[in-house]
C-alpha cells in the first residue's frame, strides 16, 4: 500500500462521500459537505491495487495535528491497519507534527478498536458531544506522540 497526498476533489469525494463512510463520519447536522482544498489540509489517499481510503489531517497548532480515517469497507482488517500505520509515518515524516489527535464517537466500536490497534492511546472523553439519530453520544479522544511512535517502531 502507498500513501499519497491528493488535491483531487474527485478522489476526495469518492472516499468521503461513499455511503458507508458518510454514515460513519456524519452526524445529524452534517448534510452534504463540500471538502475544501487548502495547503494546510492533508488529504492522504491510500492505494492498494486501487483507491482504498483516505486520511484527513490538519494542524490544530504548530505541533499538534488532528486526523480522521476513512477506509473503504472492502479494505477493513489488516489492510486498513497497514494503511493507518503508513499514514502515521507519512504525517510524522512530512510535517512538523509532534502529536496526532483524533476523536471517535463511542457508538463506532469498529473505529475505536481500529484507533487502538494502529497505536493511538485513549486520552479522555468529550461527554455528549455528537448527536446521531437524535441521541447524544460521548466521543473518545485519542492521541499519539511522535516520540512514542518512533520508540515503538524500533
Chain-averaged pLDDT: 93
User: If strands are numbered along the chain, what order do they take across the biggest sheet?
Assistant: 1-2-3-4-5-7-6
User: Strand tally, please?
Assistant: 7
Alpha carbon gap, first and last residue: 21 Å
The helix/strand series, from N terminus to C terminus, equals: EHHEEEHEHEEH
Please, how many helices? Answer: 5
Provide structural commentary.
With 154 residues, the chain is of the alpha+beta class. The protein contains 5 helices and 7 strands. The chain has helices at residues 9-16, 19-25, 78-94, 109-117, 146-153; strands at 2-6, 42-47, 51-59, 64-71, 99-105, 121-132, 135-145. A 7-stranded mixed beta sheet has the order 1-2-3-4-5-7-6, sandwiched between helices. It is globular. The model has no long low-confidence stretch (mean pLDDT 93).
Task: Give a quick rundown of the structure.
This protein is an alpha+beta fold and 154 residues long. Helix content is 32%, strand content 38%.
